[in-house]
From TrEMBL, chain A:
GO terms for MF: dolichyl pyrophosphate Man9GlcNAc2 alpha-1,3-glucosyltransferase activity
Keyword Transferase annotated: yes
TM segment ranges: 39-59, 146-166, 178-199, 219-251, 263-286, 331-352, 359-378, 398-416, 423-443, 504-525
Name this polypeptide is given: Alpha-1,3-glucosyltransferase
Membrane topology: Multi-pass membrane protein
UniProt pathway annotation: Protein modification; protein glycosylation
Annotated localization: Endoplasmic reticulum membrane
Species the sequence originates in: Porphyridium purpureum
Automatic annotation (TrEMBL), chain B:
A Pfam entry, by short name: Alg6_Alg8
PANTHER family xref list: DOLICHYL GLYCOSYLTRANSFERASE, DOLICHYL PYROPHOSPHATE GLC1MAN9GLCNAC2 ALPHA-1,3-GLUCOSYLTRANSFERASE-RELATED
Protein name: Alpha-1,3-glucosyltransferase
TM annotation in the entry: 141-163, 207-225, 237-264, 284-305, 410-429, 509-530, 536-555
């Protein structure tokens, strides 16, 4: 834990090592070496411990026949995929009742279910007869399968991202450990994956992997990054939330090549990337490529536009504003698309004109947040997408990351409370504060608050004070939300008229926070060049320490 | 640049990898300042400590969940129902369920108070008719929250104060490796104490209230180790009596604490030749005796009034139980019983009888081949093993802090306490595996103080906690318990690397053996024997393997005590020569 104090090597050496690592290959085998490995091992073990403790909470729909919940959905998919040929997976038949948790994730998810099913106890995946199968041992087996999936995809991807993203900073090693720890700890993801039960970390891990690869400035990692991103898309369609940012980033890189070495070079570059995308999609979709009907069946299942503008109570614009202006709840997909594109345009343009690493991750955050706020068919769990991207910025803006983590958890709180995991929620909120406090010595951020280049301690102290006030305000608001939630729930007169009122208290508050977050992300955009200059200056060893944040007062 | 650095808080600079040595060198080179000695800043305003505390609380909050309930949860719920609904006269005679009250009176009062809180908060499930049934969800959360609150009140505070005074006293001591600063040593000690997997597994996942007695014990040690305040001794004695009355397993360390009180109050440095000073010492001792007796009487008065003493004592000390608990605690007798089994197997005599040893609590099971061991022999052995620690405690007053390079009175009191607990654990009669906490927890804050302590703590904590793992047996608890254990061992390994405490080859092998054994127990055993045959074998192997580690740690502790004796003698030698 205390490793980062002792394990600090020279910046130049670190950079050189990073360069060689980039030059060699872009695979996950390029794990950092040296004493850091011990720190990463401790963090990984601690994360596994935390995950397994959260996993002791009830899963979605535990003991609730006839439909159960997401746990049963995942089990049912294992049952389907292991017993039916791929072409039957997405179509209604007498063995596949689509109304009972029909498969509605893209093929890669189904393949993973198929893979896990071959290790599952046979009675738990027997066709039709195993519906609603629950037992202590099988429960533990499923929970452990999530942990195994995390260990195989999420942890290595995050480690690779951390080592890639942290290389150009002065306190690179410290940042690497911190990035790894904060991403791996991301409490909201843990709650959804291990308490509620889903395999989101695999999809997000593929996305993080693709970002880690795309951050390197050469052709082969870019192609591999496209490959990883396509896998992410094929694992969970919601990774489309990031697609605009990725596309514009690659376009921006292509235009850089255009300026540097001419049209032919840029065109080849784009062609190779397109080839990578095409090959990935073709190989993943191979079983369905025979007829157009098969493809259409899968697409219809994967994009269920008939299911409405949002599901359940979501902290997005349509659900929250629809409370006050009814017609917004019946908004058409086209209107949603326009609003989303409009909201994500600034980020796309900025990454197109300036495709550097921080702008890219920032654009991922901004675009996915826009999609969450304005797009069609949004679930409450989709908040994980903007959350992941914002958390990836945590070494640049710890304050933003701790805020986003808290708000994301707040927005899924009604879901967790319904399932009896509210104590896990409390613990996770504490963990969020703890992790940021430990790795960033308070939740002050190091993105400069003003454009002034003076790095005097008085301005940083003022910034710290500002952050402290913001921390207190956010904490108070979240606590007030919960107080209101509990209070309203205990008033029978209100509950009788508006049974969803407590939930709306929480979701509308989260919506307000997310809007504020969007504005903050927008305001970060033009400042990034400035931040870039600060951190990439190789000689500035003292710069980082000057903005060393003050300890956080915990409300 | 240097000017800007000066403005930084110290913690920030240390964070940057600048240790106080290097800082001092820089300043000396500049010729501006005199050498700076940085004392341990054990303060919760330090973000690292604050985050450590948050993490500890977060982990415990996570463990409050209502899903997994053990028998001890039922036991404590029944006791609450009993104390709340039954007159104090009948607490130790009534049998409202199979779990009769067998803790000392103060704990019973505590249960009464907690039941009162439950009634104020309107938590259901603490009535007489609930006794013997499964604990409901809200009652479970309530019970675990009381553990959390009480632990923060007693153990967290005790550990915090203890580490604060232990590491503050170290001064410019060069006992630890130079790469470990005072504050980081203190932080590591606190993390080993606050995040101890033993407490988390026993008190939360399994459910018990060990933290109260342990916390009070730590507070007692702090007060006994305090060299300045007069009243500290009196409060310390009162606290220890209180602690003893919350959990009578603290009798294990009572000889040590008693000897410490005697040692501190009797020969405090000055010579005892003058009759006046002798009288003064006797008066102090008398005063302490009065304090202890008054505390004891106050706590026991209701039972004295109702004439229940005999009943209480009978419940508290059930000597009809056997030498070994149903699951063997990892101590000498586990090895003894294991040898017995092996001999019985080899000789083929009375095999049936011998293999069925794993029985109910309260069944005295004779050994097949070896002679049986009685409570008296066990007590005599434990007391004999404690003698070096008791002697050291009696010499405590002779200790002069300044010339004993940093091995302060507090450290020695703590170490002897832990050692005495370990003696009772290793040789005691009908010891529970959970009693290992009494040895490990007092040693945890000490462990990063000096490499010798670390060496003992490392093997004791790993072996002892490994012996606790069979306590958690449901499928859902398998990953957390293994993760707890591995994380703790890896963290200990890293800490000892940082302190430059090397592993011997045997230790290296022993630590890896845990992994092999656990793999066998989790996978190979069922694959080999199936689910219903030889189910005692993994448990037996676990407790015997852990017993080896505990015994080695005990031997190392004994060696360390002798070394302390020698150092003390060497320290006193020149002094007495000079004075004569």
């Amino acid at each position: 834990m205390e490793d980062e104090t002792s394990a600090r090597t020279d910046t130049e050496a670190e950079q050189a090592r990073a360069v060689t690592r980039v030059a060699l290959d872009g695979s996950a085998s390029a794990m950092p070496v040296g004493p850091r490995r011990g720190a990463l091992a401790v963090i990984t073990l601690a994360a596994v411990l935390w995950h397994s403790l959260v996993a002791m909470y009830p899963y979605s729909g535990e003991g609730l026949p006839p439909m159960y919940g997401d746990f049963e959905a995942q089990r049912h998919w294992m049952e389907l995929t292991v017993n039916l040929p791929p072409r039957m997976w997405y179509v209604e038949s007498e063995l596949n009742d689509l109304k009972y948790w029909g498969l509605d994730y893209p093929p890669l998810s189904a393949y993973m279910a198929r893979l896990f099913a071959s290790f599952a106890p046979p009675e738990s995946v027997a066709l039709v007869t195993s519906r609603g199968f629950e037992s202590e041992v099988f429960r533990a087996w499923m929970r452990n399968s999530v942990i195994v999936a995390d260990l195989l995809v999420w942890f290595p991807a995050v480690a690779l991202f951390a080592s890639t993203y942290a290389t150009r900073r002065t306190a690179a090693e410290r940042d690497e450990t911190a990035l790894f720890a904060v991403l791996v700890a991301m409490p909201c993801l843990v709650l959804i994956d291990h308490a509620h039960f889903q395999y989101n970390a695999v999809g997000l891990g593929l996305f993080v992997l693709s970002v880690a690869l795309l951050l390197r400035d050469s052709l082969v990692p870019d192609a591999l990054g496209c490959f990883a991103f396509c896998l992410a898309l094929n694992f969970k369609q919601m990774n489309l939330y990031y697609a605009l940012a990725v596309a514009f980033y690659l376009l921006g890189k292509a235009s850089q090549r255009l300026r540097a070495s001419g049209l032919a070079h840029a065109f080849t570059y784009l062609l190779i990337l397109a080839g990578a995308v095409f090959v990935t999609f073709a190989s993943v979709w191979w079983p369905w490529l025979g007829t157009w009907d098969d493809v259409r069946a899968v697409l219809l299942r994967v994009f269920p536009l008939h299911r409405g503008v949002y599901e359940d109570k979501v902290a997005n614009a349509w659900c929250s504003l629809g409370l006050f202006y009814r017609p917004l709840r019946r908004v058409t997909p086209w209107a949603c698309l326009c609003a989303t594109l409009l909201a994500s345009a600034p980020f796309c343009l900025s990454v197109l004109t300036k495709p550097d690493r921080r702008t890219f991750v920032l654009a991922c955050a901004g675009v996915s947040l826009s999609f969450f706020l304005f797009s069609y068919q949004v679930h409450e769990k989709h908040v994980l997408l903007p959350l992941t991207a914002v958390t990836m910025l945590c070494s640049d803006a710890p304050w933003l990351s701790v805020w986003m983590n808290a708000v994301a958890m707040l927005s899924v709180f009604p879901l967790l409370d319904r399932e009896g995991s509210s104590l896990a929620y409390v613990g996770s909120q504490l963990l969020n504060v703890c992790v940021h406090l430990f790795f960033f010595r308070g939740i002050d951020d190091s993105m400069p608050p003003s454009k002034s280049t003076s790095s005097s301690s008085s301005s940083s102290a003022a910034a710290a004070a500002g952050h402290r006030w913001r921390a207190v305000a956010v904490t108070c608001h979240i606590v007030a939300c919960h107080a209101a939630y509990e209070f309203v729930r205990r008033l029978p007169c209100l509950i009788k008229r508006w049974p969803d009122l407590p939930t709306y208290v929480v979701t509308v508050s989260s919506f307000l926070h997310l809007c504020a977050m969007y504005v903050v992300l927008l305001r970060l955009l033009p400042r990034l060049p400035h931040a870039q200059r600060r951190y990439s200056s190789s000689a500035g060893t003292a710069e980082y320490s000057i903005t060393e944040p003050q300890p956080l007062k915990l409300g | 640049m240097d000017g800007a650095r000066e403005l930084l808080p110290l913690a920030a600079r240390e964070r940057e990898g600048e240790y106080h040595e290097s800082r001092t060198l820089v300043e000396l080179a500049k010729g501006t300042t005199k050498p700076v000695y940085i004392m341990a800043r054990v303060t919760l305003l330090d973000p690292t400590l604050a985050s450590l505390l948050t993490l500890s609380v977060a982990l415990r909050v996570l463990l409050l969940h209502a899903r997994y309930a053990s028998t001890d949860l039922n036991v404590h719920r029944d006791w609450m129902a009993l104390t709340w609904n039954v007159h104090v006269r009948d607490w130790y005679t009534a049998e409202i369920s199979q779990w009769t009250l067998d803790y000392p009176p103060l704990f019973a009062y505590l249960e009464y108070a907690l039941a009162g809180v439950a009634h104020v908060l309107q938590v259901p499930g603490f009535e007489l008719e609930d006794a013997g049934t499964q604990v409901n969800a809200s009652a479970t959360v309530f019970l675990r929250s009381t553990v959390l609150v009480l632990e923060i009140l007693f153990l967290f505070s005790g550990m915090y104060v203890l580490v604060g005074s232990l590491y503050h006293d170290r001064g410019a001591d060069a006992a630890t490796a130079p790469s470990v600063t005072q504050s980081s040593a203190a932080t590591m000690a606190l993390s080993l104490g606050w995040l101890s997997p033993g407490i988390l597994m026993v008190d939360y996942m399994h459910f018990q209230y060990n933290s109260i007695a342990l916390g009070l014990l730590l507070w007692t040690c702090v007060l006994l180790g305090n060299e300045r305040k007069r009243l500290a001794l009196d409060v310390g004695v009162a606290l220890f009596v209180t602690a003893l009355n919350t959990k009578h397993t603290l009798l294990y360390v009572a000889p040590c604490i008693g000897a410490a009180v005697l040692g501190v109050s009797f020969n405090a440095g000055e010579d005892l030749k003058s009759a006046w000073s002798l009288l003064q010492r006797c008066l102090t001792l008398l005063r302490l005796g009065v304090v202890g007796t008054v505390c004891m009487l106050a706590i026991w008065s209701p039972f004295i009034y109702h004439g229940q003493i005999a009943h209480v004592l009978m419940r508290m000390f059930p000597f009809q139980r056997g030498l070994l608990h149903s699951y063997w605690a990892p101590n000498l007798w586990a090895l003894y019983a294991g040898t017995d089994k092996l001999l019985a197997f080899v000789m083929g005599s009375e095999r049936e009888k011998a293999w069925s040893t794993r029985g109910l609590v309260g069944v005295m099971h004779p050994f097949a081949v070896l002679p049986s061991v009685g409570p008296r022999a066990c007590s005599a052995l434990s007391l004999a093993a404690m003698i070096p620690a008791i002697l050291l405690m009696l010499r405590l007053g002779n200790l002069r802090k300044s010339c004993f390079h940093g091995k302060t009175r507090l450290g020695i009191v703590l170490f002897s306490t832990a050692y005495c607990a370990l003696c009772s654990f290793v040789f005691g009669y009908h010891v529970h595996e959970k009693a290992i906490l009494l040895c490990v927890i007092p040693l945890a804050p000490l462990s990063t103080l000096a490499p010798e302590y670390m060496r003992i703590f490392r093997i004791l904590a790993c072996a002892g906690y490994y012996g606790l793992l069979p306590l958690l047996f449901t499928p859902a608890e398998q990953v957390p318990k293994c993760a707890f254990f591995v994380l703790h061992s890896v963290y200990l390994h890293r800490v000892s690397q940082k302190m430059q405490v090397n592993e011997s080859a045997g230790e290296w092998l022993y630590m890896r053996g845990f992994v092999v054994l656990e793999l066998y127990c989790q996978f190979v055993h069922t694959w080999w024997f199936g689910h219903d045959r030889m189910h005692f074998l993994p448990l037996m192997l676990v407790s015997m393997y852990a017993a080896c580690g505990v015994l080695v740690a005990w031997a190392m502790g004994l060696g360390r005590l002798f070394a302390l004796h020698c150092e003390l003698t060497a320290q006193n030698g020149p002094k007495s020569a000079k004075s004569e």
